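stage 2 :: seqdesign
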């Protein structure tokens, strides 16, 4: 591999690599393209003569990566949030520019590591990249969307998900990219290729480990109302929405029926009790339960994004706790931003940090609502008690963009991490049933009204990730950094 260009040629190459890395994620699912893109970034970093150059290369990579990978934010702000197009474009650009600081930080830090390039590429860079991803998923309530490891489902790397989660998969993917970059550069080629093969082989071997135990099956019905976002909160559309979901529920014969997030777009205390009774009767007719997404008021000024149970089991409620900034809560000092947006129910209160799974249809179900699907460690708090994962979402906010497919990919990753089947009920799609190995059992097309009838496997037991969470991947990242720095420490000790 020849030396990287300088100046704007280098910036352009880094940006192209960032755009190409988006191919890792759904709907493209071309992880080898992503590995090559990360490898190109590693090459640029190894050729950087100063930490500042590595920082800038990482930022341009991030600009391309996030500018394309989360371009759906612009759709949400402009098409459905009512923000003027130039303001929406500026807001999206500024957000992506901020996110690009995290790969830039990883680049700056790895440039501080001395020694042979292969130590930086195989140890320091995967570790520091992953630590930067974790930081991105933590600060300011976190935005872990499109972590490198999120692309693992369907590939050998997915074997690492039940052990070390998404961040563990990120380490494996970046290490492979770094090793292949070294091999192409002629840096200890044989050893680099052998190590990359070992990473893939290790993941493939772990894919065949059954961490959890089958414990029966449950017939389910996932309802997709396909209510256009621009009409969802329209009073004129309200009764039609009720009728659509009630009819789909009544036609089902499954003991567990799941509706999407805020399927009824009105505070529960304002809903005609006859409508709720109709849903409850449909569930009781199947000797089961129905999970209904609906906002719930706890006071005139406080309301929750909730999931309530209707049917044969005692009434229960799950309240969403990890809220979306600007979409579901207003950060301090940011009321001026909300004046630019037209977002109904944009200031929810948070639910409990450690919710209990819901006891419905003869089993226990771990619930998440939409954006919470991006936080694996938080979802795992409801395990091992829960036998099944259920996510209720309304990704209609992002139209016909990359977001629904990326959201489904995150659902597949959560199934892998927990060793549980995962059901996803969405307003406009993608509604799907996923097994514990991350494979999609069945799904509905987007933008259609429909009911997905499926038989969900139930599982007991636990995975290492459920027990340890992200701590294992973070500890491994720390060890890799220490290993990369070890020769320097040895030399300093000898010098004394």
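stage 2 :: out
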């Amino acid at each position: 591999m020849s030396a990287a260009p300088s100046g704007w040629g280098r910036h352009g190459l880094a940006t192209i690599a960032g755009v190409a890395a988006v191919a890792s994620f759904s709907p493209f699912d071309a992880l080898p393209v992503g590995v090559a893109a990360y490898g190109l970034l590693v090459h640029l970093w190894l050729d950087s003569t100063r930490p500042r150059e590595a920082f800038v290369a990482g930022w341009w990579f991030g600009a391309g990566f996030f500018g394309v990978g989360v371009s759906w934010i612009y759709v949400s702000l402009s098409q459905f949030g009512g923000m003027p197009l130039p303001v929406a474009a500026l807001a999206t650009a500024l957000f992506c520019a901020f996110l690009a600081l995290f790969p830039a930080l990883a680049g700056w830090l790895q440039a501080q590591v001395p020694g042979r390039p292969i130590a930086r590429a195989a140890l320091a860079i995967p570790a520091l990249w992953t630590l930067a991803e974790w930081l991105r998923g933590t600060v300011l309530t976190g935005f872990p969307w499109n972590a490198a490891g999120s692309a693992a489902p369907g590939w050998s790397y997915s074997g690492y998900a039940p052990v070390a989660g998404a961040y563990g998969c990120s380490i494996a993917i970046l290490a492979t990219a770094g090793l292949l970059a070294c091999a192409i550069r002629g840096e200890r080629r044989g050893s680099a290729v052998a190590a990359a093969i070992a990473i893939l082989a290790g993941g493939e071997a772990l894919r065949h480990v059954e961490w959890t135990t089958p414990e029966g099956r449950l017939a389910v019905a996932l309802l997709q109302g396909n209510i256009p976002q621009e009409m969802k909160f329209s009073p004129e559309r309200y009764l039609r929405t009720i009728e659509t979901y009630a009819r789909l529920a009544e036609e089902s014969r499954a003991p567990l029926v799941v509706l999407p997030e805020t399927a009824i777009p009105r505070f529960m205390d304002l809903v005609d009790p006859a409508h709720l009774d109709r849903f409850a009767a449909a569930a009781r007719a199947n000797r089961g339960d129905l999970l209904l997404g609906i906002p719930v008021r706890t006071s005139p000024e406080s309301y929750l994004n909730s999931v309530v149970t209707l049917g044969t089991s005692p009434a229960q409620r799950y309240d969403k706790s990890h809220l979306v900034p600007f979409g579901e809560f207003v950060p301090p000092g940011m009321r001026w931003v909300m004046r630019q947006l037209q977002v109904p129910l944009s200031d929810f209160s948070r639910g409990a940090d450690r919710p209990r799974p819901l006891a419905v249809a003869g089993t226990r179900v771990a619930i998440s609502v939409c954006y919470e699907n991006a936080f694996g460690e938080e979802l795992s708090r409801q395990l091992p008690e829960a036998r099944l994962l259920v996510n209720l979402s309304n990704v209609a906010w992002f139209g016909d963009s990359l977001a629904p497919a990326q959201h489904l990919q995150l659902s597949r990753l959560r199934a892998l991490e927990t060793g549980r089947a995962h059901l996803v009920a969405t307003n406009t799609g993608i509604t799907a049933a996923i097994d514990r190995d991350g494979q999609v059992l069945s799904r509905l097309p987007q933008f259609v009204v429909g009911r997905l009838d499926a038989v969900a496997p139930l599982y007991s037991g636990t995975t290492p990730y459920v027990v340890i969470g992200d701590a294992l991947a973070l500890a491994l990242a720390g060890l890799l950094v220490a290993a990369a720095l070890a020769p320097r420490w040895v030399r300093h000790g000898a010098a004394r």
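stage 3 :: structure notes
- The first strand starts at residue 212 and ends at 224.
- The chain has two domains: 7-209+470-495, 213-462.
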